[in-house]
Design brief:
Layout: E1 13-14, E2 44-46, E3 51-54, E4 70-75, E5 81-87, E6 89-95, E7 101-109, E8 118-125, E9 130-140, H1 145-148, E10 151-157, E11 175-196, E12 203-221, H2 223-232, E13 237-240, E14 243-247, E15 252-253, E16 262-278
Parallel strand pairs: 2-9
Antiparallel strand pairs: 1-9, 3-7, 4-5, 4-8, 6-7, 8-9, 10-11, 10-13, 11-12, 12-16, 13-14, 14-16, 15-16
């Protein structure tokens, strides 16, 4: 049986290549969802745009005793190697609770426009065997406006250890994915301080603090992608297309329970929109 070796991540890695990730994180079943392992959400890999990821192991450690470790991109149907060296596979070395040297992986992948668009998987391979294989990713040409419509480039990191990711040990690392993300609502939120003028009795505004709220929707994520989104939106440094946002409330999952994937939504503060208008007496 295939086992997912990391959680709360848009790239889920299995240690039994070829079988595909199996949902082992959901304690509550959903009988309406059929063939969930065959409809994993696929992040977008746009030609000549960087994708950055970190493999956060369930147990906090994942080590491979091998040499010649490489990151490959393979055809998700045939298993044929399409890109023999998809990016530099870095190791985050640390000591596990047993006192052994261990490490997790992190990498940046930027695909040339010579890679044919389609469905692929990432594979971590050594000299002796294939160690890990990811869920599907969708390679899209930079000129393919139809498949890029409704997607956004998101970047996020935290200022400390967070959900199995050692940000404090990797101060320059930032996750970067292109995901299906749209805004569905926009509203302002104001906090007004009012005083009563002594001479006239009129009410005056002394201080006005305004925020802009965006409600964004994740489009047909599977269960594990929703789990990744829940954590993603809580990072201390979160950006959509280069603009900073801060979560106001909790991530909500809704939609048709009979579908293989559901939509999620959350309200975000626009960090760049913050005005204070003072009315002097």
């Amino acid at each position: 049986m295939s086992t997912i070796v990391n959680t709360n991540n848009f790239l889920r890695w299995t240690d039994v290549p070829g079988l595909g990730p199996v949902d082992t994180t959901s304690a509550i079943p959903n009988g309406y969802i059929q063939d969930s392992s065959r409809c994993d959400y696929a992040p977008i890999f746009k030609h000549e745009e960087a994708t950055r990821f970190y493999i956060n192991s369930i147990v906090g450690t994942y080590w491979i005793a091998d040499t010649g470790i490489v990151l490959q991109m393979i055809n998700s149907v045939t298993g044929a190697v399409t890109v023999a060296n998809a990016g530099v596979l870095n190791t985050d070395v640390f000591v596990n609770p047993a006192g052994d040297d261990s490490y997790n992986f992190y990498a940046e992948v930027t695909l040339e426009n010579t890679v044919p668009p389609g469905k692929y998987k990432l594979r971590i391979k050594g000299d002796t065997r294939t160690w890990l294989e990811s869920n599907e990713v969708q390679v899209v040409a930079a000129t393919d406006t139809d498949n890029l419509r409704g997607t956004a480039l998101v970047t996020y990191r935290h200022d400390r250890y967070f959900y199995g990711i050692r940000y404090q040990a990797q101060p320059t690392f930032t996750h970067q994915y292109r995901l299906h993300l749209n805004y569905i609502d926009q509203q302002e939120e104001s906090e007004v301080n009012v005083y009563k003028e002594i001479t006239t009795g009129a009410r005056r505004e002394y201080n006005i603090s305004m925020d802009l709220l965006w409600t964004v929707e994740t489009y047909y994520f599977d269960r594990e992608a929703h789990s990744a989104a829940i954590v993603m939106f809580k990072h201390s440094d979160f950006k959509i297309n280069g603009k900073s946002y801060l979560a106001k409330d909790s991530y909500r999952i809704g939609g048709n329970p009979r579908s293989k994937g559901n939509k999620g939504s959350i309200s975000l503060y626009d960090s760049e929109f913050a005005t204070i208008n003072r009315c002097n007496p």
